[in-house]
């Protein structure tokens, strides 16, 4: 009976294959979700209200779109492939729906406008920058239901101490709560991808946590550069000392403070001991502990961005500037020895504004010194 009811429910919006001559391009991540059971779970997770504006990223031929249209006030579908835009418009019109706005555009550049719920089928190569562009969007949306590559999704939902806990996980969870919805097999798509996928749900923190994201991410980059080392080891490199000392002296100069006559390494050690994380590893610390650590550094005038290059914004004040730009640089996980994550490729047009800043973004993964080498890795 359950199966029969499901078939009846979807009779008005049958699953379709692409129109004749509409070839799908795997290099563009074009894998159309065709499994009605998974589509049902995505709809259920969205908890869509009749007054909602739903933004759908990557509608393809509209298998999800036609299920959203009778539920939402309006559906705004953003699709990079003009052929798909025409296809989803044709399909919605054929079913008698007039509340669809389908437009051609790149999800990393197109203006989102106001929306309540986001639904997205994300190609792996844009997953991280899209999520952080989404989290930087204002006004806040209510929820997002995202279909991602499973390995990437596992890193989003990773808990403290787990294999996938990384900078990506902690920065995502800084701005939202992330939940697993369901796993999706390769056979649920046309054409089937070579990897499994997962649906996750994001609920933004409202109100957002008060944090200077530039400072926060600077700290997290240092800690997760070698996430299985102790924080004492992560902060022992010559580059980190040089960068923090430079930022400290700049901060003192701008605030008419006399720098303390002691090495920066002593101030760092004192800070780690105060928070009780000297011999802790990055993967074992939660968001609250990192907040305490950042506050302890800032109280001493130690900052993770060069304050001379951030006019009009005092370090430590809440700001979300740069959230969407930082993650064009890498996917948020500089994991040692696994071959996963890494620095990634810089996108064209990004990075010029940071050339003169002393920040942890300049850290080279091989920039170890003799002091760090003496610490245990595991």
Automatic annotation (TrEMBL):
Acidic residues: which segments have biased composition? Answer: 362-378
InterPro entries membership = KsgA/Erm, rRNA_Ade_Mease_Trfase_CS, rRNA_Ade_methylase_Trfase_N, rRNA_adenine_dimethylase, SAM-dependent_MTases_sf
Give one GO molecular function term: RNA binding
Q: What is its EC number?
A: 2.1.1.-
Q: List the residue ranges of the region (Disordered).
A: 1-22, 334-378
Q: Which UniProt keywords apply?
A: Methyltransferase, RNA-binding, rRNA processing, S-adenosyl-L-methionine, Transferase
Species classification:
Eukaryota, Sar, Alveolata, Colpodellida, Vitrellaceae
Q: What's the protein here called?
A: rRNA adenine N(6)-methyltransferase
Q: Which domain of life is it from?
A: Eukaryota
Entry's family note: Belongs to the class I-like SAM-binding methyltransferase superfamily. rRNA adenine N(6)-methyltransferase family.
Query: Lyase as a keyword?
Result: no
Q: Which organism is it from?
A: Vitrella brassicaformis
Q: Which SMART domains match?
A: rADc (SM00650)
Composition bias of kind Basic residues appears in: 1-12, 342-353
Q: Does the keyword RNA-binding apply?
A: yes
Q: Where does S-adenosyl-L-methionine bind?
A: 31, 33, 58, 79, 106, 121
Q: Where is the Ribosomal RNA adenine methylase transferase N-terminal domain?
A: 38-206
């Amino acid at each position: 009976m359950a199966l029969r009811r499901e078939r009846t429910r979807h009779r008005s919006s049958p699953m379709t294959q692409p129109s004749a001559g509409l070839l799908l391009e795997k290099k563009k991540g074009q894998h159309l979700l065709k499994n009605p059971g998974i589509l049902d779970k995505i709809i259920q997770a969205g908890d869509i209200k009749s007054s909602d504006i739903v933004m759908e990223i990557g509608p393809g031929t509209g298998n999800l779109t036609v299920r959203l249209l009778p539920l939402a006030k309006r559906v705004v579908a953003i699709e990079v492939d003009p052929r798909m835009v025409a296809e989803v418009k044709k399909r919605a019109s054929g079913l008698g729906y007039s509340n669809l706005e389908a437009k051609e555009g790149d999800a990393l550049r197109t203006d989102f406008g106001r929306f309540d719920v986001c639904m997205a089928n994300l190609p792996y190569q844009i997953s991280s920058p899209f999520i952080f562009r989404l989290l930087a969007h204002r006004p806040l949306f209510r929820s997002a239901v995202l279909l991602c590559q499973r390995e990437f999704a596992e890193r989003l939902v990773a808990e403290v101490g787990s294999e996938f806990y990384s900078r990506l996980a902690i920065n995502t969870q800084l701005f939202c709560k992330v939940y697993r919805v369901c796993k999706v097999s390769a056979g649920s798509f046309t054409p089937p991808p070579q990897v499994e996928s997962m649906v996750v749900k994001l609920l933004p923190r409202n109100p957002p946590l008060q944090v200077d994201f530039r400072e926060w991410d600077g700290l997290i980059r240092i800690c997760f550069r070698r996430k299985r080392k102790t924080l004492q080891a992560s902060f022992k490199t010559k580059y980190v000392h040089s960068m923090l000392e430079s930022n400290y002296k700049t901060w003192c100069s701008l605030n008419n403070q006399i720098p303390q006559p002691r090495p920066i390494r002593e101030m760092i050690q004192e800070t780690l001991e105060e928070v009780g994380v000297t011999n802790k590893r990055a993967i074992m610390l939660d968001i609250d502990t990192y907040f305490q650590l950042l506050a302890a550094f800032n109280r001493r005038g130690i900052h993770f961005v060069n304050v001379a290059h951030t006019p009009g914004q005092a370090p430590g004040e809440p700001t979300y500037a740069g959230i969407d730009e930082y993650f064009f640089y890498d996917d948020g996980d500089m994991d040692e020895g696994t071959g996963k994550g890494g620095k990634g490729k810089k996108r064209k047009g990004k990075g010029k504004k940071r050339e003169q800043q002393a920040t942890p973004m300049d850290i080279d993964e091989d920039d170890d010194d003799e002091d760090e080498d003496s610490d245990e890795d595991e």
